Amino acid sequence: MTEINELLRRPAVFKSSIMQIEPQWIDYNGHLNMAYYHVMFDRAVDELWVQIGIGPGYLKERNNSSFAAECHVRYIREIHLGDPVQVSVLVVAADEKRIHTFQEMRHATEGWLSATSENMSLHMDMTARKVAAFPPDINANVQTLATAHSGLERPDGIGRKIAMPVKKQ
After folding, report:
1. DSSP track, the chain
2. pTM for this model (two decimals)
3. How many Å apart are CA 3 and CA 88, to the nearest integer?
4. Cα dist from 127 to 104, 130, 131, 164, whole Å
5. Distance CA 148, CA 51 (A)
6. Domains, the chain, ranges and CATH?
7. How does pLDDT run across 117-140, given as a tens digit for each residue?
């Protein structure tokens, strides 16, 4: 993708297609198993990566890809079989080698928040299997999207860490 997709210029979070929970993803607690939240977040990011130009064809055509370097998932409300899900993706920041995203998984028709996922993705040269700068055309797409998202409201939870609650004295 050499032309900047108009979708990347819009000051709005990227919204994935609506996804369905698969029956084999339901665990013994009767809700979506934690591993499959990651699958759904990853599928949503893959949809955005296609728009940026780093989707599945990118590996074949240019021998580059992206790897997840860090991920923090928060489980807010249970999601169950039959619940339609949509994931929004906000680009929090980006540089020549990294994309920092924050995703929200919501019930697609009722709108309530089920989970969030904050991620750091690295651009990879697959020949060397090392982190590398985005090619200029891809970097332009990434920066266009980061700029479009820079003015958007930051959802609760960005930069959050895992810690025990502080006890009040």
Report:
1. --SPPGGGGSSS-EEPPPEE--GGGB-TTSSB-HHHHHHHHHHHHHHHHHHHT-SHHHHHHHSEEEEEEEEEEEE-S---TT-EEEEEEEEEEE-SSEEEEEEEEEETTT--EEEEEEEEEEEEETTTTEE-PPPHHHHHHHHHHHHHHHTSPPPTTTT----PPPPP-
2. 0.93
3. 23
4. 33, 8, 11, 42
5. 14
6. 6-150 (3.10.129.10)
7. 999 999 999 999 999 999 999 999
